[in-house]
Amino acid sequence: MDQNTHTSFIPKKSLTTATQNQNRGVAEAKSSIGIVFLITLIIFISVVALAIGVFLYQQFLFQNIEKKRNSLERARAAFEPALIEEIGRLDMRMKSAREILDNHKALSVFFDLLETNTLASLQFENFNYKIDETDRISISMNGVAPGFSSVALQSDIFGENKFIQEPIFSNINLDNKGNVIFDFSAYVDSRLLSYIDNVLPGNSTDQ
For 105-198, which CATH class? Predict the structure, then answer.
């Protein structure tokens, strides 16, 4: 009687090793997923915390601005509107007065200079002056002198004065009495005729 013997060989050790390796792989995969999840959670919490911080800071700024606005409104209300209006009108009047003074020409200052710098033997008459579009001041006069030398000397005196610019003696002639007659024209430095610089107390222009 034939006896058939069936034998099978199962490598228990290799199976156990494979199972352990498989379990280890699963554990490492779970560990990696856990780390990624932890990092993601930390980032999410940080973003949320940052957003909350920005929101709270924004609310703080809004409240601070509102408080300052309220303080400003209270400060404005502390002043009487009628007083503020009166101060505004006074300021406008002062500016207008200042503008008038700045533009006012004091001819008396020029006459003082003319008296000081004119020869005793020479006289001027028919004084005229005008201001052109560039605010340049020109003057013109007729003069009488006892001789030509007096006219020449007077020309030198005016030529040395810094406030009399471009002095011109023209139409020099003799009258029926033997006196020298002439026309005189020149420009005057506007600083000399400034009322605010030369007439107001404490202000003067050196001649």
Answer: alpha beta
